[in-house]
Design brief:
It is a single chain. The chain is of the alpha/beta class and 325 residues long. The chain is 34% helix and 11% strand. The chain has an 8-stranded parallel beta barrel, surrounded by 6 helices. Helix 7 (211-218) links the parallel strand 6 (202-204) and strand 7.
């Protein structure tokens, strides 16, 4: 596949509804994304909330058992919640399977001493408060990449721009990618394009965006999009399995994230949450299998990127200012 093309597919219940005069309107070709991953694929897969080596082992075992292809796994508690040995074990296990490992960077406002995040307004949310928190995120990025990690999750625009500049200067490896957290995800095409220009290589959008919103974003940016097909409760608990084919058509290049509603929050993860973490990790893979089965049933399973693909292709960036030496 050399250019974007919407998979030929039927819609859920299409034939039965047509017999009742309730056929859905035809797709509008103008709604489809014109973009792909650099390998020509339209979609990749991600298992989120994989919080340590034991959870990762469960995910990989279940992906084999249920034949669920995985391009990326991501962790939400942060680099600082893992030991060097744990990071190395996860990086080695992912490298052996050509699965991208993405770890969250450092301190964030919701865990800080500031009280504004606990008010009804939410304050500044996850953003890194002050120089110290920003420096912690940078320290996490340096440590993780030294241990072989090549994808980092960020939840602050300033941290993203700082890490992008460090990547450009060679302080971070050139093939490091930055993924924007769903908890700060943009909700309009202009803000999406700003995140791309600040250095983002894939961008989570909130799972309540409409299909029309995805089309609007794709008219202004080609940066890969991450979207929870099923969102955890703190992100709304939305379950959009039957929309997956249309999410791909509108949002490509798209990471399908197999989250889990009605499951306990596990950030920051520790051994006291082991049973919940392992059980939810196992179920996320099963949810992925259900989504893939729907794509097959509706003839929309074409266009997946080859396993092992991870880079986003050429993206637009703000010009880098002259840094002080």
């Amino acid at each position: 596949m050399t250019e974007a093309s919407a998979p030929a597919h039927r819609r859920p219940g299409e034939q039965a509804l047509a017999t009742l005069g309730l056929a859905a309107p035809d797709d509008n070709p103008a709604d489809a994304s014109p973009h792909t991953f650099p390998d020509g694929g339209l979609w990749r897969t991600e298992i989120p909330s994989v919080e340590g080596p034991e959870s990762l082992s469960v995910v990989l075992q279940e992906s084999d058992r249920l034949d669920v292809p995985i391009h990326r796994v991501s962790q939400g508690s942060g680099v600082w919640m893992l030991s060097d040995a744990e990071i190395t074990e996860m990086a080695d296990a992912c490298a052996a399977r050509a699965v991208e490992l993405c770890l969250f960077t450092g301190p964030r406002g919701t865990w800080d001493t500031g009280g504004s995040t606990r008010t009804d307004s939410g304050g500044a949310g996850l953003r890194a408060r002050g120089h110290g928190a920003m420096a912690g995120c940078v320290e996490d990025a340096l440590r993780a990449t030294e241990l072989g990690v090549r994808c980092l999750l960020v939840a602050d625009e300033g941290v993203l721009w700082t890490l992008h500049r460090l990547r450009a200067r060679g302080v971070l490896p050139a093939d490091t990618t930055f993924k924007v957290s769903a908890l700060v995800g943009p909700v309009n095409p202009a803000s999406y394009a700003v995140f791309e220009r600040l250095g983002a290589d894939s961008i989570n959008v909130p799972s309540d965006l409409t299909l029309a919103h995805l089309t609007e974003i794709r008219r202004g940016s080609r940066a890969p999009m991450d979207l929870y097909v099923e969102a955890p409760d703190d992100l709304g608990g939305y379950v959009r399995m039957y929309e997956t084919a249309e999410l791909i058509r509108r949002g490509a290049p798209l990471y399908l994230k197999f989250g889990l509603s009605k499951s306990p929050a596990i950030y920051p993860y520790g051994a006291q949450l082991r049973d919940a973490a392992l059980g939810s990790a196992r179920e996320r893979v099963r949810r992925g299998r259900l989504v893939l089965d729907l794509l097959v049933r509706h003839g929309a399973d074409g266009g997946m990127s080859p396993l092992g693909s991870r880079l986003p292709g050429p993206l637009s960036r703000f010009p880098l200012t002259q840094d002080k030496d």
